[in-house]
Design goal:
25% of the residues lie in helices and 29% in strands. The chain has 163 residues and is of the alpha/beta class. A hairpin with a 2-residue loop joins strand 3 and strand 4. The N and C termini lie close together (7 Å). Bound molecules: adenosine-5'-diphosphate and magnesium ion. The site of magnesium ion (MG) has 5 residues, from helix 2.
Length: 163
């Protein structure tokens, strides 16, 4: 059973806090898929994560470029957004699969657009609207993802954790 962690994010500050908490847990090659509707907070989370790693420049949504690469916190990080792919085959044609399978950390919004052409990630993050805020569900897909979820779970009392 993959381990899952659910966290309520009452406002944008909580999303930023989750991004900052994820930042020091990234390791080379880690892959995270971020799912949720437009405006759910996927880019907000990635931006906070990059800021926490020391990225000072502009962090723009890769909606039009498909990918924005960064070097931050001693890691190579590729932030991808596949929303605009019309067909999974476009993913293969893009050539950006070169970011996968190596040392680059990949943070991928709208992974569903590439369907089965994307390998499964180490960690899935689902962001959903929850009243005026959001609910984040993190699901580990393997040992590297498990380590992230367990580290995030920590001793905090406000986690609604299940395994
Ligand atoms: N926990 C939260 N509660 C309420 N609003 C949030 C929360 N997290 C982020 N937001 C807001 O929701 C919007 C999310 O936009 P964005 O991060 O671009 O979403 P996505 O990348 O998923 O399309 C931003 O306006 C942000 O301020
Ligand atoms: Mg986005």
């Amino acid at each position: 059973m993959p381990s899952t962690l659910t966290r309520t994010l009452a406002g944008e500050a909580a999303t930023v806090e989750l991004g900052a908490a994820l930042a020091p847990l990234l390791v080379p090659g880690l892959s995270i898929h971020l799912s949720g509707d437009l405006g759910a907070g996927k880019t907000t989370l990635v931006r906070a994560l990059l800021r926490a790693l020391g990225e000072r420049g502009r962090v723009r949504s890769p909606t039009f470029t498909l990918v924005e690469p960064y070097c931050a916190g001693g890691l190579e990080i590729a932030h991808l957004d596949l929303y605009r792919l019309q067909d999974p085959a476009e993913w293969a044609e893009s050539g950006f699969d070169e970011y996968l399978g190596g040392r680059t950390v990949t943070l991928i919004e709208w992974p569903e657009r590439a369907a089965a052409l994307l390998p499964p990630p180490d960690l899935r993050v689902l962001l959903e609207l929850d009243g005026g805020g959001r609910r984040a569900t993190l699901t580990a897909q393997g040992p590297a993802g498990e380590r992230v979820v367990e580290a995030l779970r920590g001793p905090r009392a406000d986690d609604h954790a299940s395994t």
